[in-house]
């Protein structure tokens, strides 16, 4: 899995400083008050005054708010990395190759919603190229879709095909009573591509038991990419994967 924890060192420092103050303050605000008093110049070297009940309560409330802010900061970074990892993994599942420029921000540069192709048209070339995979959209759509450029709308598709951006316009999908046929109407194989376009297909009736086939009647592999869970991303953070 890709690792996009570029902000982690700065966030770790911020969280560490926050907890260094907040945790002792939650336990006993007088401790932090005394420690901070060492850095203040008091006339005659007087000890810091004891905190009153209202001051203790307010400092504990502040410390609690800082702990919540630290957790929110970590959660925000995990969320950003979860989205980036989801887009990267989805693009790879559709056959994208690695490229430094597109991998840096995969939700913007590596995987797209529908721009060019709609899967309609008639076969014109003498030979066609096979389609490698499809995704069945049933119920809630995969979460990674909403983070892509030009995201596919809910209930817009029954089937989803992902192809390299340079050959996605050649996709032709035909629906029959006994099967769904998907192929690339081109005499040359699609070259490796670091950018993937997703083509949604709205069937006239549910897929049911009908197979999805490609050139030569060969079955198309059903894949199911989606965003990694929070647990998976946190594990990657803990292990540095």
Could you provide a short overview of the structure?
The protein is α/β, with parallel strands linked by helices and 241 residues long. It has six helices and nine strands, in the order H-H-H-H-H-E-E-E-E-E-E-E-E-E-H. It is elongated and about 90 Å long.
Decide which structural class fits the backbone. alpha/beta
Low-confidence stretches: none
Q: What's the alpha carbon Rg, rounded to whole Å?
A: 27 Å
Spatial sequence of strands, sheet with the most strands: 1-7-4-3-9
Helix % is: 25-40%
Average residue-wise pLDDT: 84
Outline, from the CA principal axes? elongated
* Number of E strands: 9
N/C terminus separation: 7 Å
The count of helical stretches stands at: 6
Please indicate the percent range of residues in DSSP E strands (runs of 2 or more). 5-15%
| Largest pleated sheet | 5 strands, mixed
The H-and-E topology, N to C, reads as HHHHHEEEEEEEEEH
